[in-house]
Amino acid sequence: MGTKDVLKNSSASLNVDLSVIIDNYQTLKGKSNTADCAAVVKANAYGIGMDKVAPALYNHTKCRIFFVANLVEGVNLRKILSAATIYVFNGLFPDQVDTYIDHNIRPILNNPAQIGLWQNEKAPCAIHFDTGINRLGLSEAQTDEFLNEKHQLNLSLILSHLVRSEEADHPTNRTQMEKFRKISTELPNVPASIANSGGIFLGPDYHFNLMRPGIMLYGGNPGLPKLPDGIKQSIEIKGKILQIRELDTGMSVGYNAIWTASRPSRIALINVGYADGQLKVSDRHAKVFVAGNLAPVIGKVSMDMVAIDITDEKFDRVTVANDVELLGANITLEMAGEVSTLGQYELLTGIGQRYNKNYNLGAYA
Amino acid sequence: MGTKDVLKNSSASLNVDLSVIIDNYQTLKGKSNTADCAAVVKANAYGIGMDKVAPALYNHTKCRIFFVANLVEGVNLRKILSAATIYVFNGLFPDQVDTYIDHNIRPILNNPAQIGLWQNEKAPCAIHFDTGINRLGLSEAQTDEFLNEKHQLNLSLILSHLVRSEEADHPTNRTQMEKFRKISTELPNVPASIANSGGIFLGPDYHFNLMRPGIMLYGGNPGLPKLPDGIKQSIEIKGKILQIRELDTGMSVGYNAIWTASRPSRIALINVGYADGQLKVSDRHAKVFVAGNLAPVIGKVSMDMVAIDITDEKFDRVTVANDVELLGANITLEMAGEVSTLGQYELLTGIGQRYNKNYNLGAYA
Fold this sequence. Notes:
Two copies of one chain form a homodimer. By secondary structure, the first copy, chain A, is α/β, with parallel strands linked by helices. Chain A has two domains: about 30-220, TIM Barrel; about 235-365, Lyase, Ornithine Decarboxylase, Chain A, domain 1. In chain A, about 30% of the residues lie in helices and about 25% in strands. Chain A contains twelve helices and 19 strands. In chain A, the strands form four sheets. In chain A, strands 1, 11, 14, 15, 16, 17, 18 and 19 form an eight-stranded mixed β-sheet that branches. In chain A, strands 3-4-5-6-7-8-9 form a seven-stranded parallel β-sheet. The longest helix of chain A has 16 residues, at about 170-185.
């Protein structure tokens, strides 16, 4: 076995099922009969790997529109997908205009100053009209002003952001959607987009011309009561058992001795720590899946390892080098998010750099 | 200006002062008149960049011994430093023996099975004797057994891990140290090491032959009442202002509207979000430094941006594209750790991948 295989075999792994991401895209796109569907691949495709996710969607679906957060991500994506339409959420700084144009990337203009910078360009752009999130985007007054003046922009998209799309019954959603519909009516020839993952499930009024899911592509739940049918988790994280220890009653484990054995105990040390992103020092109720059962994380998570309690008989056959699931079919993102110091979005975007990463196209290979 | 400069200018940045890391090393090494001093560079040198930190220490100090967490990190470090001594904390799996030897990397053997795997090798190795942390390492019974039998290992180091070295007065420290001294006495020709960053400040009894600081090299505080004299923070994280908004009283900001303006407010959006690691969704008291003053983070941190309140007069001159310090001379790791959902170790090892990274050797260039 060569060095590469040895290192691969002994490492914790991130396994990404790209076919699930493709299927999730199709499921989300299927929620509308009329609207197109883009893919949000910012933050390295939510930590999963933009260089693998974006081509999988481009090559195996009709997804042609991608959203990233900033121009660096846009330029990186352009190297991967030469023909895709790429929008950048965070807008543009004065010195970025030429770079946007040179790389055929479309800025989402967020205020009058940015509109001014793009005013004389023939290349397409988008405008973000703020309907209540009060982060980026044109304010209500700036929106009115823009709609009342003539502009020479080559607008290929207008968009807005929902504040709480995962709360289906909250009146803010309808208020935002109606504000956006009014704007859209005044720009009848420009495609419009307001629906993120949660927005897609608010119904057809929210689909407009383009839906733009992010977390649900990857199988995360933005906060809906349950993950919609057809949306599956695309990633799995597995560690390996480094060592097994027998402890007497009263012996404590790890830094600051925050866990003490209340019975003669058998513990296993796994080769994943807080530097790998999934488990955090302040986690107190995390579990992993090993030998067909859930096992509790005990003691303080260390930088490069974590201890689990495998005293119970059901773990008798657990041994060194066994795989341990930290995230996957048995520990879903939803389960992890419920007990974690962090939320599902953070668990994804915080995936560490040390995993041996495997990408599988499944039936689409 | 070329694409590279444009992207660099508009990005949030991680600035690493390698000269500070070099000086911190010298300060720590100076705490003992007799012991040598290694550098712990696991987890990508605590998130800062092993490929820059390790050569800086090797080329500008007499540091010749480096510790990493696993064999992948060891092989990566060997590519960078061909002559350094490299130890791997997490021990070895059965199929790794040849890879350790081929790359001249020394395993830290953590149990009798691992000792058995290395028994017939002439290459040097270390043994970890557990004195109470109950993670990896030989248990008390295994230690006795090892000391009572003849072994043929080429032992270049023995070590142990302190449970709570940052609590100077806790009796566990002395108990561990004395246990380890007893073991060391029985292996009189083998260099010994128990002091991590905190352990160095427990005094000469803890220095043995080799000290091995980690977080203090980088200027983090493992939990001492205050950062010792001469230890300085080596990193700075800066974002840029994307946009400034004027809000009326009653307008809310960000997802789920958790912050509402109680007065006419001026807010700024910064191009750093939870995907960049520093600020987390559950943070409620984080601050940043802009225009010579601290400004509070408001609302829910987004994936790619965060809002701050710059209503006060002292922020009047703040404008788009201004730099904002998230970590640095004015927001120390200690200050950040106090208000963060995460601790200092996690803030370091969680540094995101999107920063424009700058490494500066300062006076050592």
